[in-house]
């Protein structure tokens, strides 16, 4: 029974399992779809293979591009390094060249008299000295004692006489001037070769400068070429002087620069003070329709004032006074009844701020000097500081130092040569500038009296070097080594150096004439000195060797 029941149950289960409603014959379609599935799988595999190939090509292209970029970067870097190396070599070569050039110039400064070359009247340094027999110490001493030393007493007497008369004349000038309208004249000061004791050639001429100032409430505001504004090269060394009210702003109010209109008023300036009639400014010696002081107007005013002053005091003196040069405001000449005469210059100047630098209305002109840009441009003179510098240095030099003697001898030789062959571009001021440079460059012991011959040679060689280079710099302008004891304005020490020989670059004819005169002076030096030298016994000179430079 149980076995039969078991069989019946097994049969039922088998029937249920094999019933088509419960388990459909899914596997019956497998044999039909297998090929289609395999075909799709092959197609998929092929597409994946193609995609792989495409990706590999893209990766390869990217790698090639990356390599190209890296290679280009390497090339650029190498080129930069090469350029840097080239720039370094270029800079190094330039530095070496500059060092060689500086060494060459230094070498020339110490040994330029030994350099030879082709025949050229102007280009060979030291060539003019070859074959020139320089006077020995005994001849120079005799020449100085006979021709120059005796003039010192004459200069002292003349200075005393001229200064006394000038003081009296200026006092009379103040009395004839209107104190409320005319310029205020101060005491005069002596400058130049007569007051530095190196004037040698007659006629002796005293140079006196007379500072003047405007009447109240006006004042002078000075502007120089080195004060910040750009000045052309031909105006270097000059400045302008503006006449302003003392209470006026230095920069000026906008009402002076802008038309405000009829219905507008400046709150700072009234209508009366803001309008300056042209006649008022002309009374203040300004250029027409400007506020700038006119040197020509100053010249006319000063000549008229001096004439009035002389008319007031002429009865006190037994001589006549007249203007010796029409184009110079204060070139005066005293004529005695005996026929003798004394010339002196009384020149009006304007003080620069609180210093002893002065704007001078008229400066002694030479063939080398360029024309003045305009009558509102005033030349600056440093004559007071030059005199002080010589006095300061003289205190440190040995007794009876030869610095003044050198300048006197050189000035005499040049003046004598110019009287024979005509004027040149060189002036006594250039010769004094050479001495000032050498006084600063050489130690004090080098100016002992027994070294007169050597120092005179130094001055001539330095002057020839400057002529060759067409460069002789002003001693004070751009010189940062000016002694602090002088109280020299710092603005001029910081300025660009001023080349006194700049006109030689522009005027070739004057340059050639100047160099020819200088070389002719060297050749005639012995003859010029021997002409004024007493005979020196041969026994006195046997021990002195006479060598060319």
Automatic annotation (TrEMBL):
**Signal peptide (UniProt feature, chain positions):** 1-20
Could you name the Gene Ontology cellular component terms for this entry?
nuclear outer membrane; plasma membrane
Q: Name one Pfam family in it.
A: Mab-21_C
> What membrane topology does the UniProt entry give?
Single-pass type I membrane protein
What positions does the domain Mab-21-like HhH/H2TH-like occupy?
404-477
Coiled coil ranges (UniProt) are 38-72
Q: Which UniProt keywords apply?
A: Cell membrane, Coiled coil, Glycoprotein, Membrane, Nucleus, Signal, Transmembrane, Transmembrane helix
Task: Output the Gene3D superfamilies linked to this UniProt entry.
Answer: 1.10.1410.40, 3.30.460.90
Q: Does the keyword Zinc apply?
A: no
Q: Does the keyword Nucleotidyltransferase apply?
A: no
**GO MF annotation list:** protein kinase inhibitor activity
Give the location in the cell.
Answer: Cell membrane; Nucleus outer membrane
Biological function: Enhances Ca(2+)-mediated inhibition of inositol 1,4,5-triphosphate receptor (ITPR) Ca(2+) release.
User: Which family is this sequence assigned to?
Assistant: Belongs to the ITPRIP family.
Name of the protein: Inositol 1,4,5-trisphosphate receptor-interacting protein
Its source organism is: Falcunculus frontatus (Eastern shriketit)
